[in-house]
Design brief:
single chain, 214 residues, alpha/beta, Nucleotidyltransferase, domain 5, six-stranded mixed β-sheet, five-stranded mixed β-sheet, 11 strands, 28% helix
């Protein structure tokens, strides 16, 4: 399987190519200009991987949550590339990609959280599955940071497996770090969704690849 993944829903403009040989990826953090940069990044990653759109099995597209314009760019580019090459498109959410980062570093349960602006955050809970991927434990929610909650069992004294927090919602609203049953690596407060995690999830959903190391 050869799968291209791309995402522009947040400040990260990222692409990845998953093949039988491994993973190639590239990511830029930028305030704007995703639409101009993403196609150049796709061309570079395909050339680096020695393949073309015609040689792919599918495309994984980041579908947010994130900025309205960024989500539109991500979905439109993926659909346009897929239409021309007659490829399936697999949707992956920003919070799923964030959770995959933490799971890839050994987390068993994850609270993924992104800044939604205007005093709100996006969040959802996830758990690692036996395949090293993830399963959702809650739907995506949006609201005031004070509304973010962990499952009741996670707030009991000395939980055996605390939730790992990841995403820029924690950087924007430091009070979220005080949730009972939550631990946060300082680096993961600044984490953004990345296409290489979307590629792993997209390949699994297409049914043709095991997770690969980045």
């Amino acid at each position: 399987m050869r799968l291209l993944a791309l995402d522009t829903a947040t400040e990260a403009c990222s692409v990845a190519l998953l093949t039988e040989e491994g993973m190639l990826s590239d990511s830029l953090e930028m305030g704007r200009g995703h639409a101009q940069e993403i196609l150049r990044m796709v061309d570079r990653i395909l050339a680096q991987g020695g393949t073309t759109l015609a040689g792919l099995s599918g495309i994984a597209a980041g579908i947010g949550p994130g900025s309205f314009t960024g989500v539109r760019v991500s979905v439109a580019v993926a659909q346009g590339l897929a239409f021309g090459a007659d490829l399936p498109v697999v949707p992956v959410t920003s919070l799923e990609a964030l959770a995959m980062q933490a799971i890839g570093r050994g987390a068993e349960r994850v609270l993924a959280c992104l800044d939604a602006r205007m005093g709100e955050v996006y969040w959802s809970w996830f758990a690692a599955d036996p395949a090293g991927l993830l399963r959702p434990m809650s739907p995506t929610a949006v609201g005031h940071p004070a509304a973010v909650r962990l499952p009741a069992a996670a707030t009991q004294p000395a939980p055996a497996t605390p939730f790992r927090g990841i995403g820029r919602g924690f950087a924007a609203y430091p009070e979220l770090s005080n949730l009972a049953g939550l631990c946060i690596d300082p680096e993961e407060r600044r984490a953004l969704p990345q296409a290489h995690d979307m590629a792993r999830l997209g390949a699994h959903r297409l049914g043709g690849s095991r997770p690969q190391a980045a």
